[in-house]
Amino acid sequence: MTSTPPPATTSMPKNVVLVIIDDNTGSLELLSTALAHEGLSIFTASDPEEGLDIVFREHPQIVITDLVMPGLSGLEVLDRVIDFDPAIDVVLMTAHYTSESAVDAIRKGASDYLNKPVSISALRERVNRLVEEAHRRQRASELENQMLANARFEDMVGRSPAMLEMFSRIRRVAPHFRTVLVTGETGTGKELAAKALHSLSPVSNGRFVVLNCSAVVETLFESELFGHVRGSFTGATQDKMGLFEYADRGTIFLDEIGDMPLGTQAKLLRTLQNQEVLRVGSLTPRRVDVHVIAATHRDLRGAISDKLFREDLYYRLSMVEVHVPALKDRPEDLPLLIRFFLDRFSSQFRKEIRGLTQRAHIVLARHNWPGNVRELENVLGHACMMAQASTVDVQDLPEYLRFPARHPQAAPTLVTAPATDSETFEEHEKHLIAEALSRANGNQSQAARALRIGRDALRYKMRKHGLL
């Protein structure tokens, strides 16, 4: 292997990496000399296996490979490179040109197919176009990062008109509200909107207390909200403070308020009107100063008609309403959210995930996201955990997205990826390495190629997992 890096440069774009693979050392020397210029780092290999090791280690933007070589053919190299990262531009060269092999190469993902002897000027022009395209992708990525930074509002991400309107509404409402109703489909991020309202409110230094009304047993609702005194019911062995008292001089977030029993709704209304709570079994009211944010994905007006929700409580809560739009109604935010979650999971799983392939983007763009942002988070958490390369591809996505025809009525089961504990990923990585070594009969070089990592990286991971 030889390397001919360009001289140091202070230009903003990063160097583009080119790998040339050809069993003819004379061709390697000629091509590397002819193509060398500032901004391009060139690596060469006369052995295709060695060339693939360079590809896996250096992650180039461009690969030029001969078609006919001992050991591995150029088409086999193409398959391995595309499998590693479909975004890499692969150019095939051959002295045995046929239209059939050219069509086969292009169909498999080659960027170009050139006949030897290759015109140096034509090849240089072709490589210069690929270099400029790589720089364009770099600039697009940097712009995307800048857009993501500019599209952040508290812990939310969006630049669509619907989201900008919501952000503006939260800014206007937060300094003044006593009660707010947040509406939106399941998974849209209603709790994040509630946290933003609290964060920008005068009680931001107070507690933000959350109660999911759909998860509370009906008989314990009043005790959870308002507390109880000792002996007020069986099992009440001591006085207990309710969530309203706990949230005093702060905010209480009542998620899925539509699931609250009617009896509790009446007592909640009294608390909102009088700013005082009455513990279960007590005759003495206690004053509280609490901002209340309620959220629901239900049609509360319909629930009022069905006698399942109190009309007076609805009007008390909905004096100000904030609606969180569904993901399908803000498709322009999808690329930003993808970048946001890739960055998060890349850090969480300690993996370098640079982005999605174009075909993976297409799969995500055509999905209608019934589970909204929560579903997208789940999908990308799964994809980042499964990805072996630094680019998420279609095969890393859940099956219901890859094969929608097999799951025409499937509603995905959303399982949140581990937020702080990386043990699951560590076990998964150890399993993959052990399996690759077993299939390679202990041959570390072969296992490294199967895993699409360098041999040194494999040995490091083997030591880390006690496999060496």
Structure explained in plain terms:
The structure is a single chain. This protein folds into 4 domains: 2-147, 3-Layer(aba) Sandwich (Rossmann fold); 161-324, P-loop containing nucleotide triphosphate hydrolases (Rossmann fold); 328-420, Helicase, Ruva Protein, domain 3 (Orthogonal Bundle); 427-464. It has helices at residues 25-35, 48-58, 74-84, 99-108, 120-150, 161-173, 190-199, 221-226, 243-246, 262-274, 300-305, 311-317, 334-348, 358-366, 372-386, 399-402, 423-439, 444-451, 455-464; strands spanning 2-4, 16-21, 40-45, 62-66, 89-94, 112-115, 152-153, 156-157, 179-183, 208-212, 227-228, 240-241, 250-255, 276-277, 286-287, 290-296, 321-323, 355-356, 391-392. The longest helix is centred in the first third of the chain and has 31 residues, at 120-150. It starts with a strand and ends with a helix. Helices cover 45% and strands 15% of the residues. Mean pLDDT is 86; it is low at 1-11 and 413-423. A 6-stranded mixed beta sheet has the order 1-3-2-4-5-6, with helices on both faces. The chain has a 5-stranded parallel beta sheet with strand order 10-13-16-9-17. It has 468 residues and is of the alpha/beta class.
